[in-house]
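Researcher:
Attend to token order:
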Amino acid sequence: MEANFNDYTIDTIDIWPYEAQQFLSENRSDEHILHLKSILENLIIKTRKEQIQLNKTITIEPFVTVADYDNDSNKEYWIRHVKEFKNATSLKDQVRLHYFNILDKGIDSFFSLTQEITIDRKNDDFDFWFAMKLGQYKDGVKYISNFLNYQLKVSFKRNFQKMEGFLILLICQYEGELLSEKVVKITRNWINKESNSVKEKKQAKNEINKGEEIEKPIHKTFYLDIVRSQPSILKKETAFIEAFQILTNNGLISLDTPVDNFNAIFQSKPLEEGNFIKWIGTLIELKWLIQQICKKGICSHIIGIEKWKVAQNCFLITADGKWRKIEKHTQISNANGATKNKKYIDAFGVKIKSILNLPSDNT
């Protein structure tokens, strides 16, 4: 019998005829075929009993019983099989019969060894059946990956780590016996390929998670310390409007920016992109402004690189004549250079400190 390369399930109907032929061709040992015949016979009877007890469709039936002899319904057929069974004195003769005799609930019955029973991981001999099925692919090695992929999905529920350990032990147990050299080689290649794929996916996932952790700031605005306890304080302070005008009148913030938008970057609610502050100064000037805001007593809870990420959620800059979000926080943190406008940013800081009753030289 030729192997069935297109069905990736592990089924006794594919395995017994193939293994029997291998034995008759002297490619299997006596010990192997005796072991297979024994566990297959037990599995057939066990499966039949389960079907009866659980009221399932009975797929395993004896093809002739002693009752057929007693009621004369199939007497000659019974006698013929009894004679064949008694005359099969050698192991090869017994294998050629492809059936066995057993007392089924007290009824003397003959069952075919060619039964359709799917083997899953719950089977105590799963590794043995798996090895026999995998071994069949020695004449169809191009199908091995398909078979292993199917088993990874169905039998191992996509748990590659479990299947990898299983295959390593399987190779150790059956290499050279049921698994040929080329089957082992391709199986190992599949293990290595899948292992690398799993590692790459895990690394990519970690990088994505890490990236999300890095790129997403905890805070979305420069929520001032004092605004937390006095939400409307900036709207009441003339000094805040004056601080804002220092930036707009000296070419740092676009003149069409409403003061309410600027006030919003110091509140708790995140800004919509349409309300972002249009920054027309340089990136180094924006860096100085953020440093003025994130000082002790002003916005002291935003520290480290977090302040640059918050700025990404509050300011727009121009690029190619269009207003755009700041793509990377490092565009701000790594900015350098000098400008005459630093004095205006310092003056802005003095105004903010006056609102908070902080000394003007506070750093």
Observations:
- Residues 196 and 202 are 10 Å apart (CA to CA).
- The mean pLDDT is 89.
- The chain has 17 helices and six strands.
- The longest strand covers residues 99-104.
